[in-house]
Specification:
The chain is α/β, with parallel strands linked by helices and about 800 residues long. About 25% of the residues lie in helices and about 15% in strands. A hairpin with a 2-residue loop joins β24 and β25.
Length: about 800
């Protein structure tokens, strides 16, 4: 706790500091010291190795490429130091959603080239990184642990160490030696789409967890090696990613230095003391200065005051966001203290430009040697120079019974009981209806960073070593002599004794997870309608709420006899049944032990609701949580959200037969939409008919959207449609000033079809992504008719096309 004491001192010392500093004073920051990384024998080996390395080989160590943009043969010309598999990058020659085998083969293919003897080549092993943020979650068959927001509610550091160890073993078994975690963000605005990656709004929980998770992943300082089933950890994101103004991902922390220290720095001293081998720089800024270019924080504070002896890695093209830089050229970031740039698709040009800057002296040789020494230090400490890999390819590790049992235990410990009017626990002999969209959807219960970047596009078949929430409940009911019936829409022929309704947020990850209101399902309250339907039938109802943040759910709580915050539990749905389902005589098998690590909002506008703040007025305070042993009464809650529901929508332009707020059909549209049946719902589409004899345009418009981040992240404009009458002339699609020839999309055929156009394509065709007001338009000058069922921004770029610009 010494660093907390230093924090209190620094808060006093900084009382008279400028309101918007960008340069940190290291003397005010907590001190720490890396353990297990520096020893004389290893340093001597590094010195000897560096003496043999060419400048090209040194620069290569400082650059990391994504496997979606590099092949093993490229390493012969570009001796890079690291590769990564991004959230949706597939192993070589295999689908993105692949089991252990293709990942091991990919690792071995890259390692073979990096390590092969060649004249004039110093063989240095690669580091292979992956976002194993809740288990080795990119790999089919891996155990998926609850996301950090749930683990924070468990308040159990020892559990973190066990989870870290299991994650390391499942990562090492796939041939990968570096996990990009843990996230040590302390989210302060729940609109942030990465809130669930933080353990708590309270830095004390993050501080208690940081070292525990590092020790789980890496082992004891100086003792952890890949040969023992350990992997390198990456404490992230340094610094302040959870404190951006308005909760905007990659945004700006507009706070003083004392606040940056007191709230956002607390996880790093224990992580460094525990021996974290790497630290990842944040996309975010501090009072306008990008972290990737902030020398006072990366070098003076992190490497100086905090004594970090490992290396600093960048985030996905984060260096390119530094003013004066691009994805392919950024001496500023290296000079500020970045040791390895994550350049997933820009690595080749970044290598060439960085090499030129090293030769010209723009990047001093001393800075290059320091970065390379730090990288090699980690590689030696991790055991990468030892070719023996006993865990690589080991069978029976992913989804092992022991790991699944641990994950199930974690699920039970993370559940927070917000309300219970005597309905829980359910008797094991009861007949239970299990309803809601999340009841039998492992993807939904697992959230983002699961098999794909945003966690979307998955089916239950993609999770062979997993159990849905419904399956876990059915198993428990059968064992107790009762029964469970799955009915997603809540329909039934025989009235059940009780209903469990599983609903919540659909999967999302960074950026696309940002919201503008904390109201759940604003303007389209499907879950509330289901709860009201069951209550009207006189059925006692238990709500299991899946979410990556606290949300305003007062109406849903009012319609529930019990309400459980289940967060994003991962692959082990049975952990929920362990607590909800009791014995034959209705006594608990396990009690609720989870307590809120985030305050729960009273209105949808309480975006920054954190314990200790002035005016703190939550619905459920930090630390709240009922149990069977400690009951509590929740009365009727107010149902005025306090925020315009239309503010929530930034990506859905047409759905369910209408244009949702805040967008609308353009008033000057020359084509009138007519409701028709969609592919799944009655009147879930609109028919658009172009008349003969004149040109006409139909458009959807709204307030300006800045889609720069979405464009850089390879999002697409997706449209689901059916051609009712093929065009007899050219059809032009518009988006934000871009106009493309879309005629080829509308070949004759009665089937519903989907097209995806990359936002980068539209940008390159003339769209100004900083302020898009025309979200979609179609123009034709000859008879044509089609029906549109859905138009939205999607995160899956597979199959995207890029039409020619319209003439």
């Amino acid at each position: 706790m010494a660093f907390l004491s230093a924090t209190m001192i620094s808060a006093t010392a900084l009382a008279d500091a400028p309101d918007s500093p960008t340069i940190a004073n290291p003397a005010h920051w907590p001190s720490a010291r890396s353990r297990g990384l520096v020893n004389p024998a290893t340093e001597a080996k590094i010195t000897a190795l560096m003496a043999k390395m060419s400048l090209e080989e040194k620069i290569g160590q400082m650059i990391q490429a994504d496997i979606g943009s590099i092949k093993p043969d490229d390493l012969r010309k570009y001796p890079l130091g690291s590769i990564l598999a991004g959230g949706s990058s597939p192993p070589l020659g295999s689908p993105d959603r692949s089991p252990q085998g293709p990942w091991v083969a990919t690792s071995r293919a890259f390692a073979a080239v990096a390590n092969e003897p060649r004249p004039g080549h110093v063989a240095i092993p690669l580091m292979f990184g992956i976002d194993a943020v809740h288990g080795n979650s990119n790999v089919v068959g891996a155990t998926l642990f609850p996301h950090n927001i749930g683990l924070g509610a468990a308040n159990d550091p020892a559990l973190m160490t066990r989870i870290g160890r299991a994650t390391a073993e499942e990562t090492a078994a796939t041939g990968i030696d570096w996990a990009f975690g843990p996230t040590l963000a302390v989210p302060q605005d729940d609109r942030w789409g990465r809130t669930y990656e933080g353990y708590s709004e309270n830095p004390s929980i993050t501080a208690r967890y940081a070292g525990a998770m590092i020790r789980g992943l890496q082992g004891k300082p100086g003792k952890g090696r890949i040969q023992l089933g350990n992997v390198a950890a990456s404490a992230k994101h340094f610094l302040g990613d959870g404190g951006t103004k308005d909760g905007i991902d990659q945004g700006d922390d507009q706070i003083d230095e004392a606040t940056l220290i007191r709230i956002h720095a607390q996880g790093y001293p224990p992580a460094i003391n525990a021996g974290t081998m790497t630290v990842m720089a944040s996309y975010s800024s501090w009072n306008g200065q990008k972290m990737h270019g902030n020398k006072s924080l990366l070098t003076d504070v992190l490497k100086g005051r905090m004594g970090f002896a490992g290396f600093v890695v960048g985030d996905w093209n984060g260096h390119g966001q530094v003013p004066g830089c691009s994805n392919t050229d950024c001496a500023i970031a290296f000079n500020a203290g970045l040791d390895m740039a994550m350049a997933p698709d820009s690595w080749r040009d970044l290598f060439d430009n960085t090499l030129k800057e090293a030769k010209s002296g723009v990047i001093p040789m001393s800075r290059i040697d320091d970065a390379v020494r730090r990288i090699l230090r980690v590689k030696f400490a991790l055991g990468l120079f030892d070719s023996v890999r006993p865990w690589e390819g080991r069978a029976g590790v992913l989804g092992s019974p022991e790991h699944r049992a641990l994950a199930r235990e974690a699920v039970a410990k993370t559940l927070v009981l917000l309300k219970n009017d005597g309905v829980l626990p359910l008797e094991a002999t009861a007949n239970v209806l299990v309803a809601g969209p999340g009841a039998d959807d492992i993807s939904m219960q697992s959230g983002g960073w699961t098999l794909s970047w945003q966690g979307d596009g998955n089916t239950n078949a993609d999770f062979p070593n997993a159990q849905s929430i419904y399956s876990g409940i059915a198993e428990a009911m059968k064992a107790g002599g009762g029964s469970a019936t799955l009915s997603i829409d809540g329909s039934f022929s025989k009235k059940p004794d009780a209903a469990i309704v599983v609903f919540g947020e659909r999967p999302y990850a960074e950026m696309r997870g940002d919201v503008r209101t904390l109201e759940f399902q604003p303007g389209d309250k499907q879950a509330l309608a289901l709860l009201k339907k069951l209550r009207a039938a006189g059925i006692p109802t238990v709500s299991v709420f899946l979410s990556g943040r606290p949300l305003w759910v007062n109406p849903e709580i009012n319609q529930s006899d019990a309400f459980v915050a289940a967060w994003l539990p991962g692959s082990e749905g049975g952990g929920i049944a362990d607590v909800l389902i009791g014995t034959r005589d209705g006594k608990p098998r396990k009690d609720f032990t989870g307590r809120l690590s985030y305050s729960w909002p009273k209105t949808a506008g309480q975006f920054t609701l954190n314990t200790g703040q002035s005016g703190y007025d939550p619905l459920f305070a930090f630390g709240y949580g009922l149990s069977y042993a400690k009951r509590g009464k929740v009365g009727m809650l107010g149902e005025v959200a306090g925020v315009d529901p239309g503010l929530a929508n930034t990506s859905q332009f047409f759905a369910k037969g209408k244009v949702p707020a805040p967008f609308a059909w353009a008033p000057d549209s020359g084509v009138v939409p007519v409701p028709v049946d969609g592919p799944h719902t009655q009147e879930g589409a609109a028919r658009l008919t172009w008349p003969a004899g004149r040109s006409a345009t139909v458009a959807i418009k709204g307030a300006a959207l800045n889609l720069t981040r979405e464009t850089n992240a390879d999002l697409v404009l997706e449209m689901t449609y059916r051609v009712d009458a093929a065009p007899t002339g050219t059809v032009t699609m518009g988006f934000g000033g871009a106009k493309v020839d879309a005629t080829a999309f509308f070949a004759p055929g009665p089937q519903w079809r989907t097209v995806r156009i990359g936002l980068k394509c539209l940008r390159d065709r003339g769209a100004d992504m900083t302020g898009v007001t025309s979200l979609w338009s179609l123009a034709a000058s000859a008879p044509f008719a089609l029906s549109v069922a859905d138009i939205h921004l999607a995160s899956d770029p597979s199959g995207a096309v890029c039409p020619e610009a319209a003439r």
